[in-house]
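Section 5: illustrative case.
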C-alpha cells in the first residue's frame, strides 16, 4: 500500500482512495491466504493493526499531495450499531439483534432483516426521518474527527435490488431518499462549520436518477458514477447512442451492460445534477485478471479515458487490486499518461514504456504479449463470446460474474 501511494504519485496521478472504516476484508483475504492456505501459512492480523496500516497509508498519501478519498460503503450499518466492515472472517450473531433494532432495515417481502445475512449489503428504510438524521449525524461526527479527508464518500449498501418496499419508501425512488440524506448531511456539516466535500454515488439501484429531490448545495458535493455492470470490451465514443433507460421497477430491473445503456443512465443523472462528476471504474478489479497479456486492457483504459470528455466526466477513481504489475505495469502507465494528455498516442507511449523496461528486445516482448492477449480473447474471458455459438452471450456473462 505504501509503495503504491508513492508509485501512483510518480505516475502523476492526483487521487488515492481507501475504502471502509477498517478495511479488514482486503487485508484478511491476503494475510490468511484465503485461497492459497495449502501453499502459504496463514498470518492473521487484527483490526487494530489494520487500522494502524490505514493511518500510515493516509500519511504517505498526504506527504505526496494526493487528494485523499475515504470510506464508501458502511454508512447504512455503522450509525445503527451493525458491523460495517467487509471481512470474510467477520462473524456476528444475527439473532442477537431485536426486532426493534432491525426496525431501521429495509423491508423486503414484508420483513425487515439483514439482506442475505450481511449488514454491509443491507439497505435501510430511508423514509424514516430518524434514520436519515442518524446517518447525517454519524457522517458529520466522522468528518469532524478526520479533517485530513479531502473527499468523504457516503454510499449506500453494496447489495443490489434490496431497497425498502414499505408503503412510504415506495413513494419515491431510492435516489430521491438518498438525496434527502445528502441535503441533511450538508445542513449538519454547515451547522458545525465543516467544509468537508461529500461524494454520493450512482451505483446499482441508484443509477436511476432521482425524480423529485435535488441537491440544494452543489458546491458541497460530487457525483461518483459507478457503472459496475458495464461491458469492458467496448468504450463510449462520440458515436455511442444513448437509448431510453428502462422504467424503474423497485428491486426488479435489468443491469445495463453495453456502452449505450451506460451512457443513458449517466445522461439522466446529468439532467438533475449540475456539479462535479467523476467515474468509479473497475478495470483493475477483476477485469485485469482476464487479460494475461495486459494489452487489451491497456487499450480499453486508453479509450475509456479519452471518452471522459464526451461523457461529461471530470476523471476517474479506480476500484482495484494494488498488485497490478504483472506481466508489467503498462495498463497503469497508459491510464495515467492519457489522464494527463488525452491526445497522447497509444503506440508511441507503448514503445517508450517497453523500450525502458525490456531494453533492446522490447519489440519482441511487445509482440509476445500481444500474442498472449489475442490468444486469451478478452471478450471470451469476459464471458461475452463463446466458442459455442448456441450459447447466448448474456448467459456466459452471468455465469462468469458468479
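Designed sequence:
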Amino acid at each position: 500500500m505504501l509503495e503504491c501511494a508513492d508509485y501512483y504519485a510518480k505516475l502523476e496521478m492526483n487521487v488515492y482512495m481507501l475504502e471502509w472504516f477498517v478495511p479488514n476484508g482486503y487485508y484478511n483475504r491476503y494475510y490468511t491466504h484465503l485461497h492459497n492456505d495449502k501453499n502459504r501459512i496463514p498470518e492473521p492480523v487484527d483490526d487494530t493493526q489494520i487500522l494502524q496500516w490505514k493511518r500510515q497509508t493516509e500519511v504517505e498519501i498526504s506527504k505526496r499531495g494526493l487528494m485523499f478519498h475515504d470510506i464508501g460503503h458502511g454508512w447504512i450499518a455503522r450509525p445503527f450499531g451493525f458491523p460495517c466492515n467487509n471481512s470474510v472472517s467477520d462473524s456476528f450473531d444475527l439473532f442477537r439483534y431485536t426486532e426493534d433494532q432491525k426496525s431501521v432495515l429495509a423491508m423486503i417481502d414484508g420483513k425487515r432483516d439483514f439482506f442475505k445475512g450481511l449488514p454491509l449489503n443491507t439497505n435501510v428504510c430511508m423514509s424514516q426521518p430518524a434514520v436519515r438524521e442518524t446517518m447525517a449525524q454519524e457522517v458529520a461526527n466522522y468528518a469532524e474527527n478526520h479533517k485530513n479527508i479531502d473527499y468523504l464518500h457516503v454510499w449506500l449498501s453494496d447489495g443490489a435490488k434490496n431497497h425498502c418496499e414499505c408503503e412510504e419508501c415506495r413513494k419515491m425512488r431510492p435516489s430521491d431518499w438518498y438525496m434527502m440524506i445528502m441535503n441533511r448531511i450538508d445542513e449538519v456539516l454547515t451547522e458545525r462549520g465543516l467544509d468537508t466535500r461529500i461524494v454520493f454515488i450512482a451505483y446499482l439501484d441508484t443509477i436511476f436518477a432521482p425524480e423529485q429531490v435535488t441537491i440544494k448545495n452543489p458546491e458541497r458535493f460530487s457525483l461518483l458514477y459507478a457503472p459496475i455492470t458495464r461491458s469492458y470490451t467496448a468504450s463510449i465514443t462520440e458515436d455511442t447512442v444513448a437509448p431510453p433507460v428502462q422504467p424503474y421497477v423497485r428491486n426488479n430491473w435489468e443491469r445495463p451492460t453495453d456502452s449505450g445503456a451506460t451512457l443513458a443512465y449517466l445522461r439522466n443523472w446529468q439532467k438533475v445534477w449540475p456539479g462535479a462528476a467523476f467515474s468509479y471504474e473497475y478495470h483493475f478489479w477483476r477485469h485485469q485478471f482476464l487479460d494475461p497479456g495486459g494489452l487489451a486492457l491497456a487499450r480499453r483504459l486508453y479509450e475509456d479515458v479519452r471518452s471522459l470528455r464526451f461523457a461529461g466526466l471530470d476523471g476517474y477513481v479506480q476500484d482495484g487490486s494494488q498488485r497490478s504489475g504483472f506481466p508489467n505495469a503498462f495498463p497503469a502507465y497508459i491510464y495515467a499518461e492519457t489522464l494527463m494528455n488525452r491526445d497522447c498516442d497509444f503506440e508511441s507511449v507503448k514503445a517508450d514504456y517497453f523500450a525502458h523496461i525490456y531494453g533492446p528486445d522490447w519489440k519482441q516482448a511487445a509482440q509476445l504479449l500481444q500474442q498472449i492477449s489475442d490468444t486469451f480473447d478478452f471478450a471470451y474471458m469476459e464471458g461475452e463470446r463463446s466458442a459455442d455459438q448456441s450459447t447466448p452471450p448474456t448467459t456466459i456473462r452471468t455465469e462468469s460474474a458468479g
